Amino acid sequence: MHTSAGASAASEDGEAVGGDAAAVEADVGSSDFHSYGLSPLLTSSLERAQVEKLFPVQISTLQATTEEHDVIVRSRTGTGKTLAFVLPIAQRLIDDAP
Questions:
Q1: Does the chain have fewer CB atoms within 10 Å around its N or its C terminus?
Q2: Pairing verdict, β 70-73 and 7-10
Q3: 8 Å CB contact between 41 and 93
Q4: Among candidates 52, 51, 78, 63, which has minimal Cα distance to 25?
Q5: 92: exposed, middle or buried (C-beta count within 10 Å: 0-12, 13-18, 19+)?
Q6: What does the pLDDT look like over 13-25, one tens digit per residue?
Q7: How many CB atoms lie within 10 A of CB 41?
Q8: How many Å apart are CA 8 and CA 17, to the nearest integer?
Q9: Which own/partner pairs from 24-32 qualify as long-range (CB within 8 Å, at least 24 positions apart)?
Q10: pLDDT digits over 14-58, tens only?
Q11: Could you tell me if 14 and 67 are in contact, meaning their C-beta atoms sit under 8 angstroms apart?
């Protein structure tokens, strides 16, 4: 998969493409949602939903959107794409709230 300048993507297995796959691998298994730049509101929501850790595709997407890159994700069913897209949007809404 090719990415254009300023774009990041995740492959079918959720690994970063055009990003820092090693950093994503190191983060997998961490339940410290604050380290991903998520607000306390989102962190507590994830904990209430019994989300124990983020999948690689979710970490890759958060990192890319934090750096304000366009993101394209192609990943198998069950790898966490929906949450990968929802988290950055929810965080932006929280950050932009009056």
A1: C
A2: parallel
A3: no
A4: 63
A5: exposed
A6: 544 444 444 344 4
A7: 12
A8: 6
A9: 24/56, 24/59, 24/60, 24/63, 25/56, 27/54, 27/59, 28/53, 28/54, 28/55, 28/56, 28/59, 29/53, 30/54
A10: 444 444 443 444 444 456 787 888 999 999 999 999 998 999 999
A11: no
* Residue appearing with tokens 């690994």: 15
Q: Locate 76 and state its tokens.
A: 């198998």
Q: Scanning the structure block, which residue is given the tokens 């820092």?
A: 20
Tokens for 80? Answer: 């966490």
Residue type, 75: S
Q: Whose CA is closest to 24, among 42, 9, 3?
A: 9
